[in-house]
Amino acid sequence: MAEPKGPPSSSKIEMKKYSFPVKPIQRLCWTEATADHLMTHEEPVVLTDTDLVQSALHWDLSYLEQNMGPAKHTVYVSKSRYFMYYDERKVNDFPSFKEPMKKREWTFSKFVDEYKSHEGRTDEYLYYQDALTDTVGSGIKHDFVHFNWHWVSERKKRYNWGQLTSNLLLISQPGNITPCHYDEQHNFFCQVRGLKRCLLFAPDQYDKLYPYPVAHPCDRQSQVDFDSPDFERFPKFKEIEGYECILSPGDVLYIPMYWWHTIETSPGELSISITFWYRGGPVPSKITYPLSSQQKVAITRNIEKMLHEALQDHNEVGPLLHMICDGRY
Ligand SMILES: O=C(O)C(=O)C[C@H](CCCc1ccccc1)C(=O)O
Ligand SMILES: [Zn+2]
């Protein structure tokens, strides 16, 4: 198979530069044995020639406006370029929590109007993030039906993944950043239009990324501000090591469950992406040791949830964990 055409070099599209070391995520035709090896070992890889969302590569704002139908969709509004996800169901337990972005429910036409009127503004930014559902118009339904479902269902079977839970449509203004977080599902992240730089960190970097407490609205998100890290609070962030890729239209990035990632839309143009999120497969009947770092992260989450449930007050979880560990482990 001919070497797939390379991605644009990051120097040409002036993405943010960080001081920590990053290695390139391998970019391979999906038929390559190495691609299969990486997927099997739950390691990230950029897959080319999948045609997974080939039928959506013609999407742009005007086509979507004509075809997304009359339903309302979720758009986030942020005062900065950062769009930190938070679970609004956990907000009332944290009265001092300041919502990092506002959630709006707009028709697609309203979104397009707002998108156009926000161009050039530096006080407010928009990020459309909504599941593709059957409320969309016939044009999108046609494109959706023509995703490469045969290919993706073959992958699901081969890697023994659980069910497809959702396809998220992401429409980002140039320069938007999703801060570093992990998800509890496998993800085929498909680039449809524009360029996105993805930084990924292995699950074993957990101790360097200092996630919020599980009970916190920003559960699964790193507390570290990558732009100006607080090394007093987060000293191990100095040792972080990551992986990088720049996605072009047609590229599919496999983001394995529990892998940390932060995504930046290139300053050049709007970005359209579609995610395919899959639940993890069944826990193996025979647990083998040593445990994987993903399994250890899952265990820490269960411990935090159990302690919060037992103590009721999330402010008591930290002190009890210190009582168990300090001076003893
Ligand atoms: O596909 C992924 O996993 C990403 O992180 C892509 C990211 C937006 C994700 C928004 C989001 C984060 C957490 C929960 C629900 C929605 C981007 O592309 O900016
Ligand atoms: Zn994510």
Automatic annotation (TrEMBL):
Any one cellular-component term (Gene Ontology): nucleus
| GO BP, one annotated term | negative regulation of Notch signaling pathway
What Gene Ontology molecular-function terms does this entry list? [protein]-asparagine 3-dioxygenase activity; ankyrin repeat binding; peptidyl-histidine dioxygenase activity
Residue span(s) of domain JmjC: 141-293
**Protein name according to UniProt:** JmjC domain-containing protein
Q: Which organism is it from?
A: Amphimedon queenslandica (Sponge)
